[in-house]
Write a structure and sequence with these properties.
Helix content: over 70%
Distance between the termini: 13 Å
Strand order of the largest sheet: 1-2
Strand content: under 5%
Subcellular location: Cell membrane
Shape: globular
Protein name: Cobalamin biosynthesis protein CobD
Organism: Nocardia rhizosphaerae
Radius of gyration: 19 Å
Keywords: Cell membrane, Cobalamin biosynthesis, Membrane, Transmembrane, Transmembrane helix
Structural class: mainly alpha
Membrane topology: Multi-pass membrane protein
Number of strands: 2
């Protein structure tokens, strides 16, 4: 039975990845959106300007999803496939990147600004075409790890609970993991748990980006050099790795003033070369797609190694 469960994990990951490639995210009634709504309702009861209140909020929200995942895991391959499809966002990420490049190439800044919130939480109203291209590319790099590599690896290690639990952790971080007046303390636990959950996946993403750099005209050595030199400058222990390795692979420069709705941050320079263009954004999408496929292969190997042990 133990071998059968582990084998179903590998098969379910492959099927779920295929579903994401074909169907992308459902535009309505997405389970992640439902979780977000439930977390907002929960926050009305748990919120306080206190770290321990945030710990309680994280424990209840994520713990509930882990419990649901444990029950759903009894569904075998089908449950794993559906959970994988639910947790992944790779196809939608690539599509949004292409759409952004198309709108920027057409000079449609209004349309590009309307699209940006689907990629990241920056304030699009203050960004010009170059700023929008950079914001989209940095989001593609970070979300390649968050939306595909991390859920696949957690699925390989912990099955359905790993897939759904990781998506809950990452969603809560996106909702409350901010350093603003309301969430500086309450969102602390969400941010720290997300950092821990992405520690290994971000570095797997960095390695895959370096290895696959020639697919977009880059060099593995340049990606690794940018990672070693620049990643630690970034305020995030994980985003710095994936953004620096992407910048090195593409031969571009990322970072600089970054405007969010809650305020501005001055991000460190990552990589060497010119600021990114829409052509670089399209290359980043191709890189992201390749890394996602590589992550699936790694996840299948991990699941099979665990099965044999």
């Amino acid at each position: 039975m133990r071998e059968q469960r582990a084998s179903s994990t590998a098969v379910g990951l492959v099927l779920g990845f295929a579903l994401d490639r074909v169907l992308a995210d459902p535009r309505r009634l997405h389970p992640v959106a439902g979780f977000g709504s439930a977390a907002m309702v929960l926050e009305r009861s748990t919120y306080a300007d206190d770290r321990w209140a945030g710990v309680l909020h994280e424990a209840v929200a994520v713990g509930s999803v882990l419990g649901i995942g444990a029950l759903a895991a009894r569904g075998g391959v089908l449950a794993t496939a559906l959970a994988t499809w639910t947790a992944l966002g790779g196809r939608s990420l690539a599509r949004a990147g292409h759409d952004m490049a198309d709108r920027l190439d057409a000079g449609d800044l209004t349309g590009a600004r309307e699209l940006l919130p689907s990629l990241c939480g920056r304030d699009p109203s203050v960004l010009d075409a170059d700023g929008l291209a950079r914001a989209a590319l940095e989001s593609i790099a970070e979300n390649t790890s968050d939306a595909t590599v991390a859920p696949l690896l957690w699925g390989a290690v912990a099955g359905v609970p790993g897939l759904l639990g990781y998506r809950a952790v990452n969603t809560l971080d996106a909702m409350i993991g901010y350093r603003n007046e309301r969430y500086e303390r309450f969102g602390w636990a969400a941010a720290r748990v997300d950092d821990a959950a992405n520690l290994v996946p971000a570095r797997v993403t960095g390695v895959l980006t370096a290895v696959l750099a020639p697919l977009v005209g880059g060099r593995p050595g340049a990606a690794l050099r940018a990672w070693r030199r620049d990643a630690a400058k970034h305020p995030s222990p994980n985003a710095g790795v994936v953004e620096a390795s992407m910048a090195g692979a593409l031969g571009i420069r990322l970072g600089g003033r970054t405007q969010y709705r809650h305020g501005a941050e001055l991000r460190p320079t990552l990589g060497d070369g010119p600021a990114p263009t829409t052509a670089d954004l399209r290359r980043a999408v191709r890189m992201s797609t390749a890394v996602q496929a590589g992550a699936l292969a790694v996840a299948v190997v991990v699941a099979e190694v665990l099965r044999r042990r």
